[in-house]
Every structure is written in C-alpha cells, then in structure tokens.
Amino acid sequence: MIAGVQDIARRVIRIEADALTRLADTLDDSFERAVEILLAAPGRVIVSGMGKSGHIARKIAATLASTGTPAHFVHPAEASHGDLGMMARGDAVLVLSNSGETPELADLVAHTRRFSIPLIGVAGRADSTLLRQSDVALVLPAAQEACGTGIVPTTSTTMTLALGDALAIALMERRDFTPENFRDFHPGGKLGARLSKVRDLMHTGDALPLVARDTPMSETLIEITRKGFGVAGVCNDDGALAGIITDGDLRRKMDGLLSHTAGEVMTPGPRTIGPDALAEEGLALMTMRGPKITCLFVVAPEGAAAPLGLLHIHDCLRAGLG
Fold first, then answer.
1. Percent of the chain scored above 70 by pLDDT?
2. CB count, 10 Å around CB of 230?
3. Could you tell me the residue ranges of all domains in the chain?
4. How confident is the prediction for the chain on average, in pLDDT?
5. Whether CATH 3.10.580.10 fits 198-318
6. Rounded (10°) angle between helices 29-40 and 155-174
7. Who contacts 171 (Cβ-Cβ below 8 Å, separation ≥6)?
8. Nearest residue to 248 via CA among 179, 204, 216, 295
9. Whether CATH 1.10.10.10 fits 5-177
10. pTM score, two decimals?
11. DSSP-assigned states of every residue in 107-171
12. Which uninterrupted H or E stretch holds 93?
C-alpha cells in the first residue's frame, strides 16, 4: 500500500531531524579549528561546491556575508576557467562535497595547496580525497538520504546546510556581531525597518517645532501649524526640553488660551527617546504605554542638551514598522 503524502512528509522530516541530532553529537575539535581558521583569515571566505552542494554553498556564503564574515561563492567549474583569480593568499576556502570525490573540485583544491590557502573540507567520507587534502576535515556522520533510495541528496544537504549555519553563528558570536551590525547589511525590507535606529528616521534642525517657555501662545500656535507635527517642544533658557504642547493641552486650556505662555500650557516631563534606540522601541513607546501619542522628542542620553530631533509615528509606519 502506498503511504499517504503526510506520512511521507513526516518520514522525511524525521529522518533529517535524526541526522541533524547525530551531526550535533559528532562535532569535535575540528569544528573549533575551522572557526579559528575562518576568524583568522584577513581576506574573504571562499565557499564552493558542485551540484546540490553548490546550491548549499551559495546559501552558506550569503549567510556568512550577512553576519560579519566577508564571503562569496566560487563555482568550481568556472574556477578552472579563470575564477581561481577570485581566490588569494589571506583568504580561507570552505569546500562542500558529500562524496569528497567530485572531480570538478580538483583544480580549486590544487590551487589552495599551491598557494597555501587554508582549506576546510566538508564531506561524508573521512578517507575521501577532499578531506585528505584539507587542513581541517569536517566529516558528516553516516545517515540515510530521506528519499529511501540513497540517490537524491536530501539528508546530506540538510546536514551540510546546518553545519554552515553553525559556522556562521559561531563566527558571528565570536565577533560580537550585534543587531545594529546586522542592520548595516540588511537596510531594506521589514528586517531593515525593524533594525532602524531613531536617528535614521528623526526630523532635525529647522524642522523641529521648538519654543521658549515665555513664548506667547499666539506665536506657539503659529509654530505648531508651520512645522506640521501637531506638537511643540517647550525649552528652558539653556535649551533643554522642559515640556511638550499637544492638541490635548490646547483643549484643556481653550478658555483664554491666547492669554497664556507656552510654559503655562505645556505638559512637563514628556516622554523622550535617545537617538541610538531602535525605531521599533520608539513606536512601542508611542502606542503601548498609557495614552497613545504621535511624537517623541529625541534627546541625548544625559538629557541636558537641546532636543536632537523628533520621531513621528508616521515616520515609523512609512519605514515599514507596525
């Protein structure tokens, strides 16, 4: 009887999950030596593989590059026709091959030996040509391919991909790679928006709606209207932010509003945020605590200097937050 598709899927996933557990259990000092080689390389990490291993190599190179380890993929066949020039002393090379006997890798491996470029090999056979030639051999544990016939690269490529992720994350943590660093390599899309800093989105300079404490409300209203944020920051004589005037403050003082000064109408001690905080944190401050607000003045962490900027909720939404 032919198994149902859900049963097939569960079988495949369990086979591959078991293999990943075995891979984790068999890691040894070779993994640490591989990380040290990659950390010490002053150049780039060159990742290569043929066929399905090549597809995995491309992904590993992309993951390394986006997490603080400069890397790129070199196709082994193209390497034999000029792309060996993309490798140089100072680089380190990571080569993937389940069998370890892929003929297209020969010229690339020979190039690393000729020019003393560190070579890390990943394969399923410890006695394979690739691993015997490598400075560090990372051996994939024996595991059946999930196809059941042993001819479709499935479990082996999954283990190789996971091993590449493990190398990338180990390097990332050894380099103290932060979310802010990560954002530098991911400026676009939702991820870039989530990692944007307040300083990336805030309004500065003449765009800021600021008045002194003794500014008449007639002039304050003009400033609020002219700057277009619906608020005004009220500053002390030293320029430090003392309070904020919002439409709520205007409604509360509507009776005889124009007879007051900005300092008399303002709400003192407004919420503020620092320029190096994540913009996502600013959005949370505006929407999650107490009465919702639409703006945050940006001040230096010590809070004594004049406001540095203004973050508006619309800026966060336009950037893809929320």
1. 92
2. 15
3. 5-177, 198-318
4. 89
5. yes
6. 60
7. 35, 38, 39, 64, 67, 68, 69
8. 295
9. no
10. 0.65
11. HHHHHHHHTT--EEEEES-TTSHHHHH-SEEEEPPP---TTSSS-S-SHHHHHHHHHHHHHHHHH
12. strand 92-96
With tokens 């390394």, the residue in question is: 64
pLDDT at 232: 94
Is the pLDDT assigned to residue 233 strictly greater than 90? yes
Q: Please state, in angstroms and rounded to a whole number, the distance separating the CA atoms of residues 102 and 6.
A: 35
What pLDDT score was predicted for residue 151? 83
Q: State which amino acid sits at residue 111.
A: H
Q: What is the dihedral of CA 129, 134, 136, 138, to 10 degrees?
A: -30
Same fold, 5-177 and 198-318: no
- Tell me the two tokens of residue 317: 């939404």
pLDDT tier for residue 304 given thresholds of 50, 70 and 90: low
Query: DSSP string spanning 43-67?
Result: S-EEEEESTHHHHHHHHHHHHHHHT
For strands 309-312 and 295-298, give the pairing.
antiparallel
Residue of 153, 117, 160 lying closest to 136 (CA atoms): 117
The whole-angstrom separation of Cα 256 and Cα 260 is 7
Q: How far apart are CA 41 and CA 205, in angstroms?
A: 44
Q: What is the DSSP letter of 260?
A: S
If you average pLDDT over residues 143-159, what whole number do you get? 89
Give me the phi and psi of 266, to 5 degrees please. Answer: -65, 160
Residue 253 DSSP class: T
Angstrom distance (rounded) from CA 239 to CA 244: 13
Q: Is 320's pLDDT higher than 90?
A: no
Instruction: Name 99's Cβ contacts closer than 8 Å, sequence gap at least 6.
Output: 123, 124, 125, 128
Main-chain phi, psi angles of 146, to 5 degrees: -70, -15
Phi then psi dihedrals of residue 129, to 5 deg = -60, -45
Which of the four pLDDT bands, split at 50, 70 and 90, describes residue 294?
confident
Among 117, 48, 120, which residue's Cα sits nearest to residue 88?
117
